[in-house]
Specification:
The complex is a heterotrimer. By secondary structure, chain B is mainly α. In chain B, helix 1 runs antiparallel to helix 2, helix 1 packs across helix 3 and helix 3 runs antiparallel to helix 4. Chain B starts with 30 loop residues before the first helix and ends with a helix. Chain C has 4 helices and no strands. The mean pLDDT of chain C is 90. Classes of the chains: A alpha+beta, B mainly alpha, C mainly alpha.
Chain lengths: 249, 141, 117
């Protein structure tokens, strides 16, 4: 294995630059290093001005998402040695389709507000008192939504979704998957409240089932599946409300 | 939706954030995107087949000479080529559609999710059966 | 409920069209567009086809096929133009051209199938 590997990292300083540029760094090629390790090496030893987000370094916090050679990846889960044989530098860029604040840091407030709009919490007509009672749930009931609950809000799926890139009002894969997580939860009674937001053109109907979101998801949430399933649910609800206007709710 | 946004307001436009425009050729940049666009373009050839079908029905209505002319038109090399390409796209549509079907339906049987492969397999089996039935009607004289 | 979108109806037609097109078009196009014209398989006689198409069941089948397939095209093509070419400002025009074309195709199919002598 060669001693070093080159990284081409996007640099953008809002005070200095109007356009981003690439800066090349050579880092040691250790077989157990991930891209995040390389970035931290650069920051510690080579160029302290490099700015990027990271936290848990084990694929659960969702902070370190970046574009590596054009693909959205968690940099804490992407091995440097995978790129050793390419013969060209590894390109590290901030997540696509989000505004860049500085270097590799993007502004994700758009996602945050969209997530909030789908009310990702249990909605009940009457809450049970906190002491002495529980919501019982069988393993089968858990399995109906468990996959969607694995989302770590890393927004790699937004960086992969061309619809979001072309039409930023699109609510996006993770928001819909998380709405489904609560819709399918047996303890939840708020599906109709979420439907108003989801059953809009900017909601599920913007999705054309490209499927890239599911491909890049590091936690196998399958947001594309969640969206298509919800299209079916929303359609059935629409036909029900049309055919039985009073019986629908 | 507005009350959900009252909590924390960030300035939505910031003059120093860098935003890149998505190129018109975004779909050429990655192979999965190109495959997606090809899949969507297959719908044009689905519509083309409807055109051919309607031409056939019209020719049938107009008598044996008109129908013979229609059959000769189908033998023109450019039309054969077009139909060959159309066939490729229609098959591409069918394959991508059947492969994606299980994702749109989470069918649960006795609490466990039916494996994707069963649904895909059923689709292909139905495709074969239906094709045989349709062919049987058309191949006999 | 907030304003009821019509998307579910259009999506249902798109899905039904996709299913029908997927099952039936490959074999029909192969036979009609390649095997018969190129002589790989003897083509059916005119009298036989006419008798077949005259049957009400056949007319219904062909009408359903044309109607669903053309709405499948309209829905998918509309989104392709919207996303692929980024011509969002022509949104209404695209909508009317696509679904209008589909309605025209459906009416034409109905007319032709009704008038098979």
């Amino acid at each position: 294995m060669p001693e070093t590997i080159s990284l081409e990292v996007l640099r953008y300083s809002p005070e200095r630059d109007t356009e981003p540029t690439f800066q090349r760094y050579d880092v040691p090629l250790n077989k157990d290093w991930v891209i995040l390790d390389a970035l931290n090496y650069i920051k510690d030893k080579v160029d302290g001005s490099l700015t990027f987000r990271w936290s848990c370094r084990m694929g659960i916090c969702g902070s370190c998402g970046m574009m590596v050679n054009g693909e959205p990846k968690l940099t804490c889960a992407t091995f440097l040695s995978n790129y050793a044989k390419e013969g060209r530098p590894v390109r590290v860029q901030p997540l696509r389709y989000f505004p860049v604040i500085r270097d590799l840091v993007v502004e994700v407030t758009d996602f945050m507000s969209k997530l909030q709009s789908v009310k990702p919490w249990l909605i009940r007509k009457e809450e049970k008192p906190t002491s002495g009672s529980e919501y019982l749930q069988t393993p089968d009931q858990l399995n109906r939504y468990k996959q969607f609950s694995m989302c770590i809000n890393c927004v790699l799926c937004y960086a992969a979704c061309p619809v979001y890139g072309l039409d930023p009002v699109f609510i996006g894969p993770a928001a819909i998957a998380l709405a489904q997580r609560y819709n399918m939860d047996s303890r939840d009674e708020g599906a109709h409240e979420r439907m108003d937001v989801l059953a809009q053109h900017e909601g599920i109907w913007g999705c054309t089932f490209v499927g890239e979101c599911t491909k890049v998801c590091p936690k196998n949430v399958d947001p594309a599946g969640a969206i298509q399933q919800y299209k079916l649910t929303a359609t059935i609800e629409r036909f029900k409300s049309f055919l039985l206007p009073r019986g629908a709710k | 939706m507005s009350d959900a946004r009252q909590t924390t307001r960030y300035t939505e436009y910031h003059p120093r954030w860098y935003r890149s425009r998505v190129s018109t050729w975004w779909w050429l940049a990655r192979w999965p995107y190109l495959k997606f666009i090809l899949r969507e373009i297959s719908s044009v050839f689905v519509a083309w087949f409807v055109v051919v079908l309607l031409l056939q029905i019209r020719a049938l209505s107009r008598g044996p000479q008109a129908y013979a002319q229609f059959e000769r038109w189908l033998q023109h090399p450019p039309i054969v080529l077009l139909n060959l390409i159309a066939l490729f796209f229609v098959v591409f549509h069918a394959v991508t559609w059947f492969n994606l079907a299980p994702r749109a339906m989470a069918i649960r049987f006795r609490g466990k999710r039916v494996p994707d492969l069963w649904i895909v397999g059923t689709n292909y089996a139905a495709w074969a059966a239906i094709s045989l039935v349709v062919a049987w009607f058309l191949v006999r004289s | 409920m907030a304003k009821q979108s019509n998307e579910p109806v259009l999506w249902t037609l798109f899905s039904a069209g996709g299913v029908v097109a997927g099952f039936v078009m490959p074999v029909q196009l192969f036979l009609l567009g390649l095997a018969f014209p190129l002589g790989w398989i003897p083509a059916p006689r005119y009298e036989y086809l006419l008798a077949l198409v005259r049957l009400p069941l056949t007319r219904l089948y062909l009408f359903a096929l044309c109607f669903l397939a053309v709405f499948h095209w309209a829905h998918r093509f509309r989104y392709t133009l919207y996303d692929g070419l980024q011509i969002k400002h022509l949104n209404e025009l695209i909508f009317f051209c696509c679904y209008g074309g589909a309605i025209f195709g459906t009416v034409l199919a109905g007319y032709l199938l009704w008038n098979v002598r």
